[in-house]
Amino acid sequence: MDSLVKSNRDLIKLKNGYYKYTLNATYEPAGGLAGGDVPASFQFNLPPMNSMGFSDHYNQALVKIQSVEVFNRLGVNQVWGTATGDVRVLPATFNVNIPCPNNIRIGDYTLGTLATTHRIGQSGLHAPLKRSNGAAGFFTTTTNDGLSVAQQLGSREIGLYSQTYGRQAVGGVDTTQPSTAANTTTINNAVTTISASALQENVSYTFEDNSSIFETGLLCGNPCGTTIDCNIICPFETSQTPVGLHSPTLDQEDGNTTMIRLCLEVQVLPNPTSRD
Length: 276
Prior knowledge:
mainly beta, 3 helices, Jelly Rolls, 276 residues
């Protein structure tokens, strides 16, 4: 940055070439995951922000993904669903197809000892998504095991407890276990109960990078005034097909909706001249 700013006029000119796009999109499928209805991509038109955007003196830019959030408001314990109706409980990557030869995602997949597939992944911008608590908190319109709607709204998580199960002892032997010498311990003629629990959580998947664009921005073609495509993939899969959110206990339109919020930073750079 210092090399580009020699005066206040230079600073104004530089800041006039800094753009920050906040991009939001919602994809609501037609039904459950079995139909394979997941978002193939999200598309955005980036307008030129001012007269500088139309200039042919700024063909390149530093670009970085500042943050990403993938979520929905009705689902719980969201994982990933594929176009073939499969469930993926794997890390995922958010991709933006702005051409960038300096940033390449490379994958390797080995099956047994006989078949190995080496892949040169796609170039562009990539953000590894991290599972976190939901963007808007728990949302519901129904009561849940004695909890009212008002008691649930906005909660970080809701605990669920399974029915208790136990072992009935008859004659000092646990009849639910194999008849072995190790199973002859005398216990009371009663049911020993054990409770299992689980948490329902409104899950989101996020990425955040608050570093300076001059430190971590990638050199790309100027994206202002172009159309960009974004998608989500599980990089540990050989198919590399897009995925969307899926709620196992709410396998319908609301539970499988995929919402995204992407913050993209762009700093256009002047073309080199004969004086450089």
